[in-house]
Amino acid sequence: MRIAVLGGGHGAHAAAADLSEQGHEVRFWRRDAAALHGLMAKGALRLTDAAGSRDVPIQTVTPDIGRAVQGAELILMPGPAMAQVDIARAMAPHLSDGQGILMPPGSFGTWVVMDALRAEGCTADLLLGESGTLPWLARMQGPEEVAIVTRATRLPTGVFPHARADAAFDLFSRAFPAIERLTDALDGALMNAGPIIHPPLILMNAGPIEHFEHWDIHNEGTQPAIRRVTDALDAERVAVREALGYGPPHFPLADHYDDSRPEWMYGQAAHDRLVVSSRWRERLDLTSHRYMREDVAIGLAFLASVAGWVGVSAPVARGLLALAGAINGEDFLVTGRTLQSLGLVDLDPEALQARLREGF
User: Fold this and answer.
1) Nearest partner of 317 among 327, 305, 328, judged by Cα
2) Among 64, 120, 203, 347, which residue carries the largest CB count within 10 Å?
3) Confidence class of residue 168 from pLDDT cuts 50, 70 and 90?
């Protein structure tokens, strides 16, 4: 399968290596041409996982987005949601009918990207999807090396437009057999785990994060009090989903931490493997890190705005947004991704879901 992988972070490197090793024809694009020099010269990524370490050849490594996406059957965008509009604008002239674009996860990126593509004059008939998490728990170990701690065993995914769901899932599942169908793209956006797990961890660990050179929010940073906040926040997410008519499974985050509960997105014992790996012991800047700029300013703001839209009380989400806003000196319900900022707040749920079904 011809797959374009767009981005330069942990997920993009994991995708390029893992999908190449599975036999797909991967075109790896990153906008930072200088950062690609080493990989272009080497022609391979060093992949480390439970099977050991080995070099995985990547067919195409390029800073030319047209070369990456033209003719690709699947375009994978595992980068941060903050980059979605810029990437959409850059690839818009190069897209063609029938291509799939998958954002794992998306934070309602399916709508955002399609809107940006249409604004650029792209009329291609496209299949867009967004998943509840990345297909990998992974961390880069250097510019040409990535470690995959575990892979997703269940990947709940929503498609836009949902009227084309059969074709979309047929396409996406060729690369990701773990994909599970959701009702539509908003269903997928409200399955995103990042805005649930990361805001409590970074905000309630703010002291040690700023005090110590490196801090593992998933190890010593995950304490019972923080877990209780995470569960309360996740209950708000589930309440929003139910108010919109989305049924189970809701993939509650508690399943990730407790192996006696149903299998979560990364399977059983994933949290234990994440902690034992020690690969998340890192330095976090609480004003610029992806956990703040994507999972709070975009993902959590979006969740809180949808909650208000459907009349669900979300005091934990709003409280975390207030704390994050105080740290950053801005109101994320004003500056972040919300139904208001997307121009959708005046629609009722039935009208929005009809547009999600039929497309633009």
Assistant:
1) 305
2) 203
3) very high
**pLDDT number for residue 103:** 98
Checking DSSP bridges between strand 127-131 and strand 60-62, what pairing results, if any?
unpaired
Does residue 158 carry a pLDDT above 90?
A: yes
Residues in a beta bridge with 142:
145
Question: How many angstroms from the chain centroid is the CA of residue 66?
Answer: 23
Q: What is 208-241 written as a DSSP string?
A: HHHHSS-EETTTTT--HHHHHHHHHHHHHHHHHH
Domain count, the chain: 2
The helix (H) or strand (E) run that includes residue 175 is helix 165-175
Q: What share of the chain is helix, strand, coil (3-state, %, to 5)?
A: 45, 20, 35
pLDDT of residue 360: 85
DSSP state of 164: G
Residue 24 lies in a domain: yes
Q: Round to the nearest angstrom and report the end-to-end CA distance of the chain.
A: 28
Please state, in angstroms and rounded to a whole number, the distance separating the CA atoms of residues 268 and 182: 22
Determine the Cα–Cα distance for residues 272 and 281; give it in Å rounded to an integer: 14
C-alpha angle 43/47/51, rounded to 5°? 140
| Residue positions counted in the chain | 360
Residue with tokens 């959708």, as numbered in its chain: 344
Same domain, yes or no: 157 and 202 = no
* Residue 185 structure tokens: 């793209």
Domain membership of residue 162 as a residue range? 2-189
Same domain, 131 and 69: yes
Same domain, 181 and 293: no
Q: Are strands 281-282 and 215-216 parallel, antiparallel or unpaired?
A: antiparallel
* pTM of the predicted model as reported, rounded to 2 decimal places: 0.97
- Please indicate, yes or no, whether residues 243 and 172 belong to a single structural domain of this protein: no
